[in-house]
Amino acid sequence: MWRAARLGRGVALGLLLTVHAVAAFEPMTVGIAIGAASALTGYLSYKDLYCRFAECCREEQRLNASALKLELEKKLFGQHLATEVILKALTGFKNNKNPKKPLTLSLHGWAGTGKNFVSQIVAENLHSKGLKSNFVHLFVSTLHFPHEQQIKLYQDQLQGWIRGNVSACASSVFIFDEMDKLHPGVIDAIKPFLDYYEQVDGVSYRKAIFIFLSNAGGDLITKIALDFWRAGRKREDIQLKDLEPVLSVGVFNNKHSGLWHSGLIDRNLIDYFIPFLPLEYRHVKMCIRAEMRARGSVIDEDIVTRVAEEMTFFPKSEKIYSDKGCKTVQSRLDFH
Ligand SMILES: Nc1ncnc2c1ncn2[C@@H]1O[C@H](COP(=O)(O)OP(=O)(O)O)[C@@H](O)[C@H]1O
Ligand SMILES: *[C@@H]1O[C@H](CO)[C@@H](O)[C@H](O)[C@H]1NC(C)=O
Ligand SMILES: *[C@@H]1O[C@H](CO)[C@@H](O)[C@H](O)[C@H]1NC(C)=O
Ligand SMILES: [Mg+2]
């Protein structure tokens, strides 16, 4: 970017000299040349022009909190807690000119409840190309770090990637999916980047964002949601304080959580634990309607009901929550 900007100035200077040379002869050319030169010398306008064609990392760029809020409220169903915490975490972090550490979010909940979905929305609001952006990186444990024998290689690789990408763009976003299947050794490799250091080897990680996704704690979250339901209380009345302590302790004590003994929790490196509630029948229906709308088809309530009724629900006695959340909605819709 800097090199490109300087190049722009060089060209502009060249144009200005040309202007002087032709000034006596052709007023028209002079006008055009001056216009071009002034457009190019203005560093900001040049940068804007450049960023219109190539993706730029603009770390000073503000987050449009109201746009994010609108999008979450419109697209994310049944997750009032996640919506609230994510908004608070991101606006707080992006409004802070001097964060003391990178932002670390840990998203927990049953499969198909919207963790990947939300990460995608968040990514798009930070870098407009979303998951396709050069500044957003998605790692899936089972895909990128599958072999236990190669932990050492993964550690080195991952540290190099994080260092390289944050050097290139301070506001890089890293998403780790399936944390519960990630070897603790790999998590240990990320730890130094998440801490309160001003710099690590000359690179500051304080503007970066790390998002961890896992199913760990999903059973505890479901239990609390179920308790509320059985007590006849509203889902929307579940508050963060009902969940947060159980969540971090529960996750920590679960050997299969991936965060277990990785030192991420005992050193308080996670800023926010974000619970995703299990989805009910009515939420599944909302997902089906959203999918139909996205496909451009008219919403046929008969089909919506039929697809929703094909899903399986638990617990056995009451059948309240969808086993797979909204996960298989898309493929099921193909059959109707
Ligand atoms: N709470 C939700 N609101 C709206 N759509 C959802 C929600 N949960 C899941 N979906 C839909 O189901 C798909 C799969 O969910 P996903 O985010 O991958 O679940 P997971 O929590 O396992 O990461 C998403 O792409 C989205 O279309
Ligand atoms: C933020 O988003 C809202 C809603 O999408 C939009 O109306 C507004 O113009 C945006 N603000 C900025 C500064 O881009
Ligand atoms: C950035 O991360 C990607 C993986 O998402 C990696 O392939 C790439 O080499 C990294 N870039 C640098 C400069 O390290
Ligand atoms: Mg997932």
TrEMBL record:
GO BP, sorted A to Z: endoplasmic reticulum organization; nuclear membrane organization; protein localization to nucleus
MF annotations from Gene Ontology: ATP binding; ATP hydrolysis activity; identical protein binding; kinesin binding
One term under GO cellular component: endoplasmic reticulum lumen
Binding-site list for ATP: G109, W110, A111, G112, T113, G114, K115, N116
Domain Torsin-1A C-terminal: 279-335
InterPro entries cross-referenced by the UniProt entry: P-loop_NTPase (IPR027417), TOR1A_C (IPR049337), Torsin (IPR010448), Torsin_1/2 (IPR017378)
Signal peptide annotation: 1-24
Keyword hit for Signal: yes
Reactions it catalyzes: ATP + H2O = ADP + phosphate + H(+)
Localisation per UniProt entry: Endomembrane system; Endoplasmic reticulum lumen; Nucleus
Keywords carried by this UniProt record: ATP-binding, Endoplasmic reticulum, Glycoprotein, Hydrolase, Membrane, Nucleotide-binding, Nucleus, Signal
Domain of life where this protein originates: Eukaryota
Family under the similarity heading: Belongs to the ClpA/ClpB family. Torsin subfamily.
Protein name, as recorded: Torsin
